[in-house]
Design brief:
Elements (H helix, E strand, L loop, with lengths): L8 E11 L2 E5 L11 E6 L2 E2 L15 H12 L3 E10 L4 E9 L5 E3 H7 L4 E2 L13 H14 L16 E2 L5 H8 L3 E11 L2 E9 L2 E9 L2 E2 L3 E2 L15 E2 L3 H12 L3 E9 L5 E7 L6 H7 L4 E2 L1 H4 L5 H14 L15 E2 L3 E11 L2 E6 L5 E6 L2 E2 L14 H12 L3 E10 L11 E9 L7 E3 H7 L4 E2 L12 H13 L16 E2 L6 H14 L2 E8 L4 E6 L4 E7 L2 E2 L20 H11 L4 E9 L5 E7 L9 E2 H7 L4 E2 L11 H13 L8 H25 L1
Parallel strand pairs: 3-6, 9-12, 12-17, 22-25, 28-31, 31-34
Antiparallel strand pairs: 1-2, 1-5, 2-3, 4-8, 5-6, 6-7, 10-11, 10-16, 11-12, 13-18, 14-15, 16-17, 19-24, 20-21, 20-24, 21-22, 23-27, 24-25, 25-26, 29-30, 29-33, 30-31, 32-36, 33-34, 34-35
Helix pairs in contact: 2-3, 6-8, 10-11, 14-15
């Protein structure tokens, strides 16, 4: 408070107590444009024992008791004070402070201190020297304290519990093991910046730890020294406050400085700095949240992992961004940033593209949708001649075994436009995928949690303004546990990578013919139907043989579906029911465990054989894919197929005839077409007979 008037009553709020005779008072009311003015005021005619800075040496006897008495009585309280005179040597005003005492009466603070015997009266030899207006009354109170032998007038040594002894800084790991997650009482001694402070933790009466504590998950602007040629000299330049650093520091001072606080230690960084939540004891005010709400701090991803209220902090920061307050006053959203979504729908999983991408069929529309797991990134599967990344195959298999063909709930968390260079052109959806656990509770299982817990995926470290998975904080904790357990991608061992012998493509025609007898004799083979180009032509992975091969169903042919060639925007039309046949195979058989019997190789080098799907139960019969296609009218028997020479051929032939009779699929207009063809034949025969008679 510049230009402090003398002999006038002034209102203020006590910000801090420096000793039993000196306090810092700030102007009341909401500050505008920065912290409010403040004044350091010492009590007129009083001298309390000196309090030394923590760690610089011992305090004078009863200094700590004197300061603590005044701290508990004044900090954060509204007071009225009168500046009476200045001491040029100290460059400090001296005055009298009034506040409510324990009885609710307004009383001079000087008298309160003297009554407890926690200060002495300065008794100048020069009668003209400045003194308090109630100097005589103060002297009487000191005399009474001396007679009663209270406070610093007691006989003998000061009891240890009335002093302050600073213990050595503890080992961080050992200390955290003892106090992590437990509320610990303390007193904030000094505010370094809005999110970092010095706290006194009492271990025993009179014994304290002086710890630096950072608020978990948030970081306020700080103070830095300009980098100049004089920075390393004897007189380095003064520190400069970063934008809103003073505002942040003042706010934290106004709610925490010298308050009794509750500290919940949550972790430490590599340098041994402690992190936790710090709030005034018994208060509902949450400092970290308010710093974010006012734009005086931002979230920090790595320390956010330590705290239990990360989701609240992120939401609070987001609201400050939208309001453009504090450090976000010039915030401009990224035009390419993900957009939050509330889209929720039921679907069936059709394909597992990778450990973090699946294809689903919407229950309502039947459309296939590509969905990415929100906030998760899986190792990449090898494409073509490229090898898989470690754990990529295991991640995909984890999803395939749990999701393929199952119904799930897709809760879209955010959507993002693909990058211009990406081959993907549609809006990409990032969602939380859940499925019913079954049982009476009817609870849902978040599949992403299993991926993270098993070490199959890594967690994306989003920027503070980015959308993320709704269960992101649980993912953070699960990833931490998986890392500690060295699971999956977090393992410190060499992880074996799947090697695949690719037998697809016409260049393998001779090789496949040479391998035919081996495959035929050692069958049937267990495999996975990885890909379907038509309803009857597949790529099948045989784990036991470590190979992937092209296979066409023996004796069964499906219509060619429509397809979009590389570089073309419009799809080339296919044959009737070609798309329906392929859709049926994808819904019913794609990426299922299958049993393959190989019998021959066609002219393109693809193997010919039968593919069967195990039944729902061990007792249930296997499902022949070719037979299923024939029964639905999505396929026809090859013109060279002889049902008498092939085992099960009569069943195939009978099934096709039943589909024809029922007008299914490709046989829908078969009877009409057959009748028309018969009439045409008869007409041609009749015309031939007429020409014969005429000749």
């Amino acid at each position: 408070m510049s230009g402090l008037p003398m002999k006038k009553k002034i209102q203020g709020i006590v910000k801090a107590v420096l000793s039993g005779d000196t306090v810092v008072i700030v102007k009341p009311g909401m500050p505008k444009g920065g912290p409010p003015p403040e004044v350091r005021l010492s009590l007129s005619s009083l001298k309390a024992p000196a309090v030394k800075p923590a760690g610089s040496g011992g305090d004078e006897p009863y200094a700590w008791a004197s300061r603590e008495f005044l701290r508990k009585a004044l900090v954060g309280k509204n007071v009225m004070f009168i500046a009476e005179y200045n001491v040029p040597q100290l460059n400090r005003p001296m005055g009298t402070i009034y506040c409510e005492n324990s009885s609710g009466e307004v009383e001079s603070v000087s008298r309160m201190v003297l009554r407890e015997g926690l200060a002495r009266v300065r008794r100048p030899n020069n009668p003209k020297e400045d003194r308090s207006f109630d100097y005589e009354e103060l002297c009487l109170l000191e005399d009474e304290a001396q007679e009663q032998k209270i406070g610093l007038f007691q006989d003998g040594d000061m009891p240890r519990e009335l002093g302050r002894t600073i213990l050595d800084t503890p080992d961080t790991v050992e200390y955290l093991t003892k106090v992590r997650g437990k509320p610990v009482a303390g007193v904030v001694d000094y505010i370094i910046n809005g999110s970092v402070m010095k706290i006194l933790i009492q271990e025993e009466p009179g014994l304290y730890r002086h710890l630096t504590v950072c608020l978990s998950g948030v970081q306020s602007p700080g103070f830095r020294r300009p980098e100049t040629e004089e920075s390393e000299g004897a007189n380095p330049p003064a520190v400069v406050a970063m934008p809103f650093a003073l505002n942040a520091k003042f706010y934290t001072e106004s709610v925490l400085l010298q308050r009794d606080v509750e500290v919940v230690f949550e972790g430490a960084d590599k340098s041994g700095n402690l992190y936790g939540q710090v709030n005034e004891a018994g208060s509902a005010v949450r400092v970290s949240e308010n710093l974010l709400r006012m734009g005086y701090a931002k979230t920090v991803a790595w320390s956010m992992q330590m705290t239990s209220n990360a989701s609240v902090l992120r939401a609070t920061e987001k609201s400050a961004m939208k309001a453009r307050v504090g450090i976000w006053h010039d915030y401009v959203p990224n035009p390419n940033a993900a957009v939050a979504s509330t889209d929720v729908y039921q679907a069936r999983v059709v394909e597992i593209f990778s450990g973090d991408v699946i294809i689903v069929a919407d229950d309502e529309t039947g459309d296939f949708r590509r969905v990415c797991f929100a906030s998760l990134r899986a190792p990449k599967l090898g494409r073509g001649s490229d090898r898989d990344m470690p754990v990529a195959w295991e991640a995909r298999e984890y999803l395939r075994q749990r999701l393929i063909g199952r119904r799930v709930k897709v809760s879209v968390d955010y959507q993002r436009k693909p990058q211009p260079e990406s081959p993907m052109k549609d809006i990409m959806s990032y969602a939380t995928i859940t499925k019913d656990r079954g049982g009476k509770e009817n609870t849902e299982e978040d599949i992403g949690m299993g991926l993270v817990a098993g070490g199959f995926v890594s967690l994306i470290r989003h920027r503070s303004d980015e959308e993320r998975a709704r269960n992101y904080e649980q993912y953070v904790q699960l990833e931490k546990e998986a890392t500690n357990a060295k699971k999956g991608i977090h393992s410190d061992k060499n992880i074996p990578v799947r090697r695949v012998n690719d037998l697809t493509g016409s260049e393998n025609k001779k090789r496949n013919k040479d391998m035919l007898s081996s495959f035929a004799d050692s069958g049937p083979h267990k495999g996975i139907l990885e890909y379907a180009s038509t309803g009857s032509r597949y790529r099948i992975y045989l784990p036991s043989q470590s190979c992937i091969l092209a296979l066409a169903l023996k004796g069964v042919r499906c219509p060619v579906p429509s397809r979009t060639l590389h570089g073309e925007s419009a799809a080339q039309p296919g044959q009737p029911f070609g798309d329906e046949a392929l859709h049926f195979v994808k819904l019913s058989f794609l990426q299922r465990d299958v049993q393959v019997d190989i019998s021959s190789v066609d002219k393109t080098g693809a193997f010919l054989g039968t593919v069967r799907l195990p039944g729902q139960t061990p007792q249930a019969p296997m499902i022949d894919i070719g037979l299923s296609l024939l029964s639905h009218g999505y396929a026809s028997l090859n013109e060279f197929f002889d049902p008498d020479r092939d085992e099960g051929g009569q069943i195939y032939s009978k099934t096709q005839e039943e589909a024809k009779a029922a007008d299914k699929g490709i046989w829908k207009d078969y009877k009409v077409q057959e009748a028309a063809a018969q009439k045409e034949v008869e007409a041609q025969q009749a015309a031939g007979q007429v020409r014969g008679r005429m000749s």
